[in-house]
Amino acid sequence: MASSIIVFDLDGTLVDTAPDLIDSLNHCLALAGLEPVRGARLKQDVSFGSRVMLERAFARQRRPLPVAELDRLQAVFLDHYAASMPGRSQPFPGAVAALERFAAAGFTVAVCTNKLEGMSRRLLGALGLAERFAAICGADTFAFRKPDPRHLTATVAQAGADAGRAVMVGDSRTDIDTARAAGIPVVAVDFGYTDLPVRHFEPSRVISHYDELTVAMAERLIAEGGPQQPA
After folding, report:
1. Where in the sequence is the domain holding 79, given as residue range(s)?
2. Which of 33, 62, 117, 151 has most Cβ atoms within 10 angstroms of its Cβ?
3. How far apart are alpha carbons 46 and 11 in whole angstroms?
């Protein structure tokens, strides 16, 4: 029988990457002669990726952003971000202990993220975490990406596990919608990058610290089968 599997989103779920992504955004804004951006609300933009971060930053300063310039600045953004990895990015408190806890219990552990696969592997490698995962699947790993449920189920398959014995952990509506569409229970962290409280999207469970993500919780969700109503 295939082992149980727990699949994590990356940015805003396992690793707090917002400081470095915002640094890269500000690098691009400086090149464009715009003011740097600051503030906690920017974390909401991080979940949408570099392109949306640039678009919103320009819009807030009422500066037009033609598509060609957006393409150029997005390439600069990604180059700047990759060159500084891991920068100030760090796993969220308790995340590494949770990975160890599930591995010790015999769970397969994987990552399913809309970050590019190569960049995801580079970040996790720089943090000394890459070898912990049976699969690291990004936005370009398959011909589809979250919220398409096949991104999650294909990640589970690549890790050699069974989607019927899987749990997803994420921080956004995208993660929750993906897991629910795949028929997989989903635990949402409430410290990630989202514009509305994650409870609003009705995950199976909500946690505020990784200490709350127990093996018993995951096994109970798997036994109940499929996405569950919030506890």
Report:
1. 18-83
2. 151
3. 8
Quick one: 59 and 103 in the same domain?
Answer: no
- Compute the distance between CA of residue 90 and CA of residue 114 in angstroms, rounded to an integer: 18
Do the Cβ atoms of 92 and 16 come closer than 8 Å?
Answer: yes
Residue at which a domain ends, from 29, 62, 83: 83
Q: What is the pLDDT of residues 62-85, one digit of tens each?
A: 999 999 999 999 999 999 999 999
Greater pLDDT, 116 or 48: 116
Sheet with 5-8, side-by-side order of all strands: 135-137, 108-112, 5-8, 166-170, 186-189, 205-207
CA angle 97, 101, 104 (to 5 degrees): 135
Question: Quick one: 129 and 75 in the same domain?
Answer: no
Q: Which of 9, 11, 45, 171 is catalytic?
A: 9
pLDDT digits (tens, 9 = 90+) for 151-164: 999 999 999 999 99
Same domain, yes or no, for 73 and 109? no
Tell me the whole-structure pTM to 2 decimals.
Answer: 0.91
Mean pLDDT, residues 191-214 taken together: 95
Domain final residue pick, 83, 113, 134: 83
Residue 41: its pLDDT value, please?
Answer: 67
Residue 229 has pLDDT above 70, yes or no: no
CA-based radius of gyration for the chain: 18
Total tally of structural domains belonging to the chain: 2
Helices (H), 84-161: 95-104, 117-126, 149-158
Reply yes or no on whether 23 is catalytic.
Answer: no
